[in-house]
Amino acid sequence: MHLTQQLELFPEYTVTQLLFKDVKNAADLRKKAISGEIIGALINPSMVVDPFQVLLATNKALHLQKAGKMKTRSLFSEIIFNLSPTNNISEAFKNFGISDSDRAVQVVLVHADGERNNMDDIQSKVDGQQIPVHRVSSLSNIAKIKKLYKVTPQEELCGSLLDAVVCRMATKDVL
């Protein structure tokens, strides 16, 4: 159901992704994340094409944290920000963070070796059905993703939507 991966560049860190649908308490979850009761990133899965997209954002966020160059206040807000193709933090939260009315949520947890994984704690707080993370594309809003990332039909002829999204995420700081 969940997906746990060790980061190649930071092998002492593990990333766990969980995916829930039919969520009834998104507003409560959002409040708990803001207050620090939930230690993880809460992402709107309708804007995610593939779990790799989230893994990339997490890896970049951890790298920026280690380098002391984060643009947001926490690792988890940096993950949400790094999913965005733009450098506008409030737009990133609007597009990729969860809202009170959302019915699905993707949770990202990051823990170092020896730290307790709070996956059970998160699962107990979410009032919804957990589904396998690799099914995130079933919740994706492809039209909205293409519009936000400005993916052209020509671009899709030579690569996948995931390729285009990852390219935008990786190069937003250089453009």
What percent of residues are in strands? 15-25%
Mean pLDDT reading? 95
What is the CA-based Rg, rounded?
15 Å
Listing every helix as H and every strand as E from the N terminus to the C terminus, the arrangement reads EEHEHHHEHEHHH
Helix fraction bin: 40-55%
Helix/strand-derived class? alpha+beta
Poorly predicted tracts of residues: none
Number of helices: 8
How many beta-strand runs?
5
> What is the end-to-end distance?
37 Å
Shape: globular
**Major sheet details:** 5 strands, antiparallel
Pfam families: CGI-121
InterPro entries: CGI121/TPRKB (IPR013926), CGI121/TPRKB_sf (IPR036504)
Main location: cytoplasm
Subcellular location: Cytoplasm, Cytosol; Nucleus
Would you kindly provide a written description of the structure presented here, covering whatever features stand out?
This protein has 175 residues and is of the alpha+beta class. The protein is 43% helix and 15% strand. Strands 1, 2, 3, 4 and 5 form a five-stranded antiparallel beta sheet that branches. Helix 2 (51-67) crosses helix 3. It starts with a strand and ends with a helix. The model has no long low-confidence stretch (mean pLDDT 95).
